[in-house]
């Protein structure tokens, strides 16, 4: 099954076509304030986005320009909720009201890629006056009716579709490629362009339409209100802190021989702790081979599930609803004795390796024809970095604490051909270990070693799992840089982020 | 070159390895030939027909990598062999690898005798066969002498049989001499490249090539687009026979180091190499290998072998054949026990080392398994195997990304595991049963120990699980989460009995403790696996 987001992409929308569209002002002149009171439909807005997508394959390039449209809805004074993927990499955001042709410029206030939600606001909020702020409701009942409202493909005007809540589950959110949260599946028709639109029950929002399955019928997914509320609470302090994680892996304890060997009764309770992420929230409190029995007083069964209000949830859902610096109480069995620990939550290190980056310029160093980039999910997909060495490093990045020595894994992603680099093609996609004998921590460190320190006669770069080092006569780098940067339109020999 | 060349097979669409990964090394050494002699097919009535060839028919059955207790469907393969003595027949190893039945047949298929493999070298792609018992019709045949090495441009005859028994002779010429891996990837040997048009006929898989009425070599592939074929050179056959006839087949020797070319100008300057010279960078030396014992070290630059200078891509100038890869200096005329001199550059100074060649040690992770069924052990529904490259390749297209990562990592980094193990034992899969509740999805995990003891190989794992611990529960220690899994000894024995009743032929196949050198050769692979494209091993 392929999960697709419901963003209506207009790749390569030509400026000419935009010019040919009827001038917005003419219509706006005729338009009057609605005679009757605004309905909830009026609070559902069309969002048109022009994007610039960074090019991790050629990191100095501006990237591709494209665009598309989605939906958003008013939840407070000049607060428009939509999906993160609708406004990711946006260069320009225009909001259109129902029955209006005016395109109102908008700006992102907060964006949360891990739960695919964003809050945007109009640069001039005046046109939103008098509109209803849609209230956020609770969790809907299974089999209860919902309406999805938005601006999907198939027409230009507002669309309403109806269906029922088919399933409540814990599923991946495709936007970040690495997060799973609570999800509601509905059978109302949800199509590209619906993204960011509200799912309504009665007069309350019970979710935000955001993704579907390409190979199944009538399966639309919406982000339920616990996730929405968590996002809105998280940004109250003016900053989005992301989801927290225990930093703990566990193994189910179904097996009778395993339970017997660990001295556990046959009562379907507890999971085996198999890994603690160093420097994570549980480091120092929990150990491998502890038996995790309860989280915040909720008993954990042998599959790692808990029961809250009659619903079965995975144990991580307790942490899902918490914030940085909140505490979690864990009850566990260690060496046969029952113990408990108060864990203070904090985010895990290493996000760029595991989640897609949006809205940032790719970082790189250019050195005598060599292009060095930090390993990110974006770079992995742009350069097809699927080698065993790289996968092994990313798999062990957290649990073997690789991040301590090398917060960034640096990869030689390209070799631009020139005098110095003619025979170095075999080194592309290799992981850099040392530069001039010094272990490299991150891209800034690599830049210091290559450009700021005094260079030896030969700059020696050693790689993970390569038979020989790569060697560059330092004195020649400047001339090669000048020539290559001119031919390839490379504006700078580095971009190290902000 | 790779996509075009294919083996000359008429009667078999075979397993992947047959359309083997032939290295693309030809073009470099191709030399100009003055004239390509016109090729002709000569009928049966021609006087010069040699009566020294037999049909070789083999029934081939490989093992199933995922379910090692069963074999794949049998295939039939037929080709030609050449009689070199009344009871010795030479053919390609590829022809008889994994055979379960072998027979030799006359050209008209009227007579046949059963045969056996006396010696086989999968890397050099040669096999020596002999009849089982009475030689039968072979007695009336004329054995051929082995030809002396030929020269570029020499005419060569290639022999085929038609279905009706007619002998076909094609005249071709030697267009170049090169090294090529004709069967197993990564094992290049001296090869004659023939130019000449041939037709497909029955039993076209492996054909004899002769020169002046003497046996020159075994033709293993033909590219019909370019009309180019590859023939295993007589030097290799000579060395193979000398080794095989002394009783124990030891195989071609290896040096035990990995090299990298030195074309990169900056790298040459850094190493202190002259602008116009040659040399190969030593990127790895296998511990206890002949190279290691000779004192070779990583970072040395190999300048010459037995006085033959190597260029920056590893070619040396052969007096008759022109430029050839340096590996020819080690494994065309040399056998185990021979000594070679290695001229190296270390710290700016030339030195000469002397290495005594040895037989290849079986590697931790075999690259190719032939005629040797994969070992396995089933305990309580857990299936354990020993890691081989063939197991990983069985994951099909994109196997390097589809095979389990820990196993791929072990294959690429065997040195991380070599010290404590004879082989890498891993939990391949779980056959679901009441004893494996909660374990059903485990697989692709390396086993470190069992019942508190480290596991060096699968035989040891079997021995450790043979004894029931005091608490009646076996522990199996894995290299990753969940770390340890537990099996109830009594229940797992019952479960295993049920598997036997349900048709599993046996619960284990363990390798024999002592391997003869010939068997070692069977599972031997390159002393050092080829790790990167730019790195070559010897």
From TrEMBL, chain A:
Domain of life of the source = Bacteria
Q: Which is a GO BP term held by this UniProt record?
A: proteolysis
What region holds the Protease Do-like PDZ domain?
358-493
Q: Which of UniProt's keywords are assigned here?
A: Hydrolase, Protease, Serine protease, Signal
Query: Where is the signal peptide, in residue numbers?
Result: 1-20
- Annotated GO MF terms: serine-type endopeptidase activity
Q: Which SUPFAM superfamilies would you find in this protein's record?
A: PDZ domain-like, Trypsin-like serine proteases
The cross-references to PANTHER family, in alphabetical order and at most eight, read: PROTEASE DO-LIKE 10, MITOCHONDRIAL-RELATED, PTHR45980
Q: What protein name is recorded for this chain?
A: Serine protease
TrEMBL record, chain B:
For this UniProt entry, the molecular function terms from Gene Ontology, in alphabetical order, are: serine-type endopeptidase activity
Q: Which Pfam families match?
A: PDZ_2 (PF13180), PDZ_3 (PF17815)
Domain PDZ per the UniProt entry, residue ranges: 256-348
Keywords, A to Z? Hydrolase, Protease, Serine protease, Signal
User: Where does the signal peptide begin and end?
Assistant: 1-20
Q: Which residues form a coiled coil?
A: none
One BP annotation, GO:
proteolysis
Would you say which domain of life the source belongs to?
Bacteria
Tell me yes or no: is Signal among this UniProt entry's keywords: yes
Name of the protein in question:
Serine protease
Give the organism, scientific name: Roseibacillus persicicus
């Amino acid at each position: 099954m392929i999960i697709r987001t419901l963003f209506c992409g207009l790749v390569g929308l030509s400026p000419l076509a935009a010019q040919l569209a009827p001038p917005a002002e003419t219509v706006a002149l005729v338009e009057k304030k609605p005679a009757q009171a605004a309905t909830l439909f009026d609070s559902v807005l069309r969002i048109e986005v022009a994007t610039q997508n960074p090019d991790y394959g050629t990191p100095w390039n501006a990237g591709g320009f494209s665009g598309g449209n989605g939906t958003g809805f008013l939840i407070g004074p000049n607060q428009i909720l939509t999906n993160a993927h609708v406004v990711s990499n946006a260069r320009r955001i225009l909001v259109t009201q129902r029955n209006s042709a005016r395109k109102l410029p908008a700006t992102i206030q907060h964006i949360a890629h891990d739960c695919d939600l964003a809050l945007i606001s109009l640069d001039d909020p005046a046109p939103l006056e008098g509109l209803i702020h849609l209230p956020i409701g609770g969790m809907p009942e299974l089999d209860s009716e919902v309406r999805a409202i938005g601006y999907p493909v198939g027409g230009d005007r507002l669309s309403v579709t109806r269906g029922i809540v088919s399933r409540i589950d814990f599923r991946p959110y495709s936007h970040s490629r690495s997060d799973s949260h609570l999800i509601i599946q509905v059978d109302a028709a949800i199509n590209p362009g619906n993204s960011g639109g509200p799912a309504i029950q009665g007069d309350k929002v019970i979710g935000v339409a955001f993704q579907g399955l390409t190979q199944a019928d009538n399966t639309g997914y919406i982000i339920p209100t616990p996730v929405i509320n968590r996002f809105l609470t998280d940004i109250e302090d003016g900053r989005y802190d992301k989801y927290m994680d225990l930093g703990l892996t566990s193994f189910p304890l179904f097996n009778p021989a395993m339970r017997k060997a660990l001295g556990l009764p046959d009562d379907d309770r507890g999971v085996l702790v198999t890994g603690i992420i160093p420097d994570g929230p549980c480091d120092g409190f929990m150990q491998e081979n502890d038996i995790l029995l309860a989280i915040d007083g909720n008993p954990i069964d042998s599959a790692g599930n808990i029961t809250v209000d009659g619903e079965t949830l995975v144990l991580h859902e307790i942490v899902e609803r918490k914030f940085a610096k909140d505490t979690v109480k864990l009850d566990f069995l260690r060496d046969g004795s029952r113990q408990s620990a108060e864990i203070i939550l904090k985010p895990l290190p290493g996000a760029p390796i595991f989640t897609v980056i949006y809205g940032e310029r790719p970082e790189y160093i250019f050195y005598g024809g060599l292009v060095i980039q930090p390993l990110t999910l974006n770079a992995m997909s742009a350069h097809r970095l699927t080698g065993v060495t790289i996968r092994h490093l990313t798999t062990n990045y957290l649990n073997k604490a690789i991040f301590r020595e090398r917060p960034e894994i640096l990869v030689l992603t390209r070799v631009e051909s020139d005098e110095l680099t003619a025979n170095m093609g075999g080194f592309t996609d290799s992981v850099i270990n040392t530069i001039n004998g010094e272990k490299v921590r991150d891209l800034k460190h690599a830049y210091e070693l290559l450009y700021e320190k005094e260079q030896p006669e030969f700059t020696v770069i050693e790689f993970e799992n390569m038979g020989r080092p790569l060697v560059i006569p330092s004195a020649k780098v400047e001339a090669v840089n000048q020539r290559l940067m001119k031919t390839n339109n490379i504006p700078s020999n580095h971009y190290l982020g902000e | 070159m790779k996509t075009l060349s294919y083996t000359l097979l008429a009667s078999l669409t075979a397993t992947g390895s047959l359309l083997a990964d032939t290295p693309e090394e030809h073009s470099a050494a191709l030399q100009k030939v003055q004239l390509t002699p016109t090729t002709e097919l000569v009928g049966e009535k021609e006087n010069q027909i040699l009566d020294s060839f037999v049909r070789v028919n083999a029934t081939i059955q490989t093992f199933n990598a995922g379910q090692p207790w069963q074999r794949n469907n049998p295939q039939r393969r037929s080709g030609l062999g050449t009689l070199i003595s009344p009871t010795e027949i030479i053919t390609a190893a590829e022809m008889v690898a994994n055979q379960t039945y072998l027979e030799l047949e006359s050209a008209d298929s009227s007579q046949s005798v059963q045969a056996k493999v006396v010696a086989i070298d999968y890397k050099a792609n040669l096999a020596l066969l002999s009849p089982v018992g009475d030689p039968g019709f072979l007695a009336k045949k004329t054995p051929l002498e082995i030809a002396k090495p030929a020269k570029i441009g020499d005419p060569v005859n290639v022999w085929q049989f038609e279905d009706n028994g007619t002998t076909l002779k094609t005249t071709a010429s030697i267009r170049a001499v090169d090294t090529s891996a004709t069967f197993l990837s990564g094992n290049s040997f001296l090869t004659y490249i023939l130019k000449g048009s041939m037709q497909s006929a029955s039993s076209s898989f492996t054909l004899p090539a002769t020169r002046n009425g003497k046996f020159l070599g075994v033709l293993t592939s033909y590219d019909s687009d370019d009309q180019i074929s590859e023939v295993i050179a007589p030097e290799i056959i000579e060395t193979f026979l000398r080794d095989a006839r002394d009783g124990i087949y030891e195989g071609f020797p290896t040096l035990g180091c990995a090299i990298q070319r030195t074309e990169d100008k900056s790298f040459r300057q850094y190493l202190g190499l002259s602008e116009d010279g040659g040399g190969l960078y030593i990127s790895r030396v296998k511990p206890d290998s002949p190279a290691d014992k000779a004192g070779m070290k990583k970072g040395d630059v190999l300048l010459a072998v037995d006085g033959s200078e190597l260029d920056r891509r590893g070619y040396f100038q052969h007096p008759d054949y022109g430029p050839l890869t340096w590996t020819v200096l080690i494994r065309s005329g040399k056998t185990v026990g021979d000594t070679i001199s290695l001229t190296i550059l270390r710290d700016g100074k030339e030195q000469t080392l002397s290495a005594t060649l040895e037989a290849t040690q079986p590697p931790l992770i075999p690259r190719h398994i032939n005629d040797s069924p994969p070992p396995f052990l089933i305990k309580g529904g857990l299936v354990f195997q020993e890691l081989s490259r063939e197991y990983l390749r069985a994951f099909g297209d994109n196997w390097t990304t589809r095979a389990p990562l820990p196993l791929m990592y072990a294959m690429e980094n065997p040195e991380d595991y070599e010290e404590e193990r004879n082989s890498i034992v891993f939990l391949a899969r779980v056959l679901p049963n009441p004893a494996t509740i909660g374990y059903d999805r485990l697989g692709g995990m390396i086993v470190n120990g069992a019942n508190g003891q480290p596991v060096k190989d699968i035989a040891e794992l079997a021995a450790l699980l043979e004894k029931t611990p005091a608490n009646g529960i076996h522990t199996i220690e894995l290299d990753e989460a969940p770390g340890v899994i537990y099996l109830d000894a009594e229940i797992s024995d019952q479960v295993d009995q049920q598997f036997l009743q349900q048709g599993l032929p046996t619960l284990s196949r363990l390798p024999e403790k002592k391997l003869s050198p010939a068997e070692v050769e069977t599972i031997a692979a390159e002393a050092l696996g080829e790790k990167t494209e730019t790195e070559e091993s010897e």
